[in-house]
Specification:
The chain has about 625 residues and is α+β, with helices and mostly antiparallel strands. The chain has 17 helices and twelve strands. α4 runs antiparallel to α5, α7 runs antiparallel to α8 and α16 runs antiparallel to α17.
């Protein structure tokens, strides 16, 4: 595997060429490699081309000239790259070399004719339709000339190879054109993203509500490339911030003659706009005065009954609608709304009466807590909504497919998938319900004296088949005659199950070990794995709600981010402790310490083949 990795890196380095080459020169470098490959393949192939000695000698002479030519291009690309940067010189050289090869090595009716396809494709990759079709026409003309000079006649063979050559030029040029279109579209998307960033750059510069509203109008003009825009605060925003008036892009400039009537029309239209919805549909209306088209954007947040403001932007007559992609407008609206909300909140806090100044410190703490809750909510929605959508989509898709198949075997497979996804969805919902019950104090605790050995082994038996499916070695090391603990059997089983489930998800290969022992006055339950491990800076966060190591929506193991938080709450209710010992890349060890009561009077449960070791295929 290492040898293959080194070979792959070497071949990639050869293909990419020197790192300081421009995009066009990198393409030229790759054509040099393709020429060497072609020369290497044609050289031995000439021996099987059934050529006369004279033709064979001429062909090899052309091949030597091609090698010298390719070596010269390879030297120039390093020393004088400007000579070949545009690619015209090498395109002409390739065409002449290939015509010479065909002329001296059997003519256009020989098997070497296929070399012309590579030249045609290369020209299409560089220049598109004009040059590639021109090259193809040049080759066809040379073919016609050779035929008539040799006294022959054009036949079906000529028609087939010439037509296929032109078709190759057209198809390769079409692919080149599509690549250029895709690159242009990408550049356009980047331009729109840059325009959006430039437009909203000043929104966060101030928390003064009037400055933010003015910045919002300026941002709308910049994004839509319009000289005229108007922001009309809603009644709800005016109730929070009395004295706010409409904001226009004119500032101190003299308004056009139609402006006052335009403002009146916008005020009227803004009262009839629909509330904010998930689907962004900028309402394009036509004002009565001057026939000016305007985009109206309602600024607000989903779930909020009130609209903050309405933006009206005049669309220039020279521009088509919509000027900006809908997702860019959606992002713009969200950022402007957030900026206005933040500014309004700040203004509300700063304009409180003197009586509220005494409680300002408490309000600041409450504000920070609200922001943290908002971040936690955002993280929760990003994780859980994604995780909920996946099993729901699977259940729906396979339910629809189930109706289309009569094969019992296929139906059973689909039902197993639906059942698996349903169980997964149920676990996530149960996690959310459990953490809610625990935090609200509504959890029912069935406290009793528990045989911890039996609990650990029964839970391990449940996970033994799953470990086997994941090709993991599963080891249990449970001491006999353990003291009992006072606790809730179901909740402690849930803790052990969560730890085993996490170990299984984060371990791609190796083993998972469940250890239960008596240390002093505590019973220690430890789950050790050989997985990816946890960096030190993340170890204090993993027991927080909705927290998972890694970025949201990546290929990390699925889950709601509530499992370890639930474990911590359960163990703390049992007056125990839970902690992690881990190092990135070297696995993890989660330890639970529960206070012991007395030596267990319960009989040992023989649940697994051995109370000390269970091994599943590596």
């Amino acid at each position: 595997m290492k040898t293959w990795g080194h070979s792959q890196s070497f071949l990639q380095g050869v293909w990419e060429g020197p790192s300081d080459l421009s995009r066009s020169l990198k393409l030229e470098w790759r054509f040099i490699l393709i020429r060497w490959l072609g020369i290497g393949c044609v050289a031995p192939g000439l021996l099987f081309a059934k050529l006369t000695p004279t033709e064979l000698l001429s062909a090899y002479a052309v091949l030597v000239a091609a090698a010298i030519y390719n070596l010269g291009v390879q030297t120039l690309i390093r020393r004088r790259p400007s000579l070949i940067a545009n690619g015209y010189m090498t395109t002409i050289g390739d065409a002449l070399l290939n015509i010479a090869m065909l002329t001296f090595a059997g003519g256009f009716n020989s098997p070497l004719y296929y070399i012309l396809y590579t030249v045609t494709i290369a020209a299409a990759m560089r220049y598109g339709y004009a040059v590639s079709i021109g090259s193809a026409v040049l080759f066809v003309c040379a073919d016609v000339s050779e035929t008539y000079i040799g006294g022959g006649q054009l036949g079906p063979d000529f028609a087939f190879r010439s037509g296929f050559l032109v078709l190759t030029a057209l198809l390769a040029s079409y692919l080149h054109d599509q690549a250029e279109r895709a690159q242009t579209a990408l550049q356009e998307r980047l331009r729109e993203a840059n325009d959006l960033n430039d437009a909203v750059a000043l929104l966060g510069a101030s928390l003064d509500i009037e400055i933010v509203l003015s910045a919002s109008v300026a941002a709308a003009c910049h994004l839509f490339k319009s000289p005229y825009a108007l922001l009309l605060p809603s009644a709800a925003l005016n109730n929070d911030q009395p004295g706010l008036s409409l904001v226009s892009s004119l500032a101190d400039e003299a308004p056009p003659p139609w402006w006052s009537e335009f403002v009146a029309d916008c005020s009227r239209i803004s009262q009839t706009l629909p509330p904010v919805t998930e689907t962004l549909s900028p309402l394009l209306q036509q004002t009565v005065v001057g026939k000016h088209d305007a985009v109206f954007l309602t600024l607000g947040r989903l779930g909020r009954p009130a609209t903050l403001a309405t933006l009206a932007i005049v669309i220039p007559t020279s521009a088509s609608h919509p000027q900006v992609a809908l997702d860019v407008i959606r992002s713009f609206r969200e950022r402007v709304t957030l900026a206005i909300e933040n500014a309004a909140l700040y203004e509300t806090l700063t304009t409180r009466s003197a009586d509220l100044q005494i409680a300002y410190a408490d309000l600041a703490v409450a504000h920070e807590q609200l922001m943290r809750v908002n971040e936690m909510k955002t993280s929760f929605l990003a994780n859980v909504s994604h995780e909920f959508r996946t099993p729901l989509s699977s259940i729906r898709s396979f339910s629809e497919l189930l109706l289309s198949y009569d094969d019992p075997t296929v139906q059973r497979d689909f039902l197993e998938i639906i059942n698996h996804e349903s169980e997964r969805l149920t676990r996530m919902v149960n996690d959310v319900l459990d953490i809610t019950r625990i935090e609200s104090g509504n959890m029912n605790w069935n406290m009793d004296e528990i045989n911890i050995e039996r609990l650990a082994l029964e839970t391990a038996r449940t996970y033994l088949p799953m470990m086997e499916r994941h090709n993991l070695r599963f080891i249990t090391d449970v001491d006999s005659k353990l003291p009992s603990v006072q606790g809730d059997w179901d909740r402690l089983s849930q803790v052990v199950a969560n730890l085993l489930d996490n170990a299984m998800k984060f371990t791609r290969k190796g083993q998972v070990t469940l250890t239960v022992s008596n240390v002093g006055c505590d019973v220690l339950i430890a789950v050790t794995d050989t997985g990816s491990g946890i960096a030190l800076q993340h170890q204090s966060d993993i027991f927080e709600k909705f927290h998972q190591v890694g970025e949201v929506l990546t290929d990390k193991p699925r889950g709601s981010g509530l499992g370890l938080s639930i474990c911590r709450e359960i163990i703390e209710h049992h007056h125990g402790r839970i902690w992690v010992e881990s190092e990135a890349g070297r696995g993890s060890r989660f330890v639970v310490a529960l206070p012991a009561v007395t030596l267990s009077s319960f009989p040992s449960a023989k649940v697994l083949p051995s109370p000390s070791l269970v091994s599943v295929g590596v």
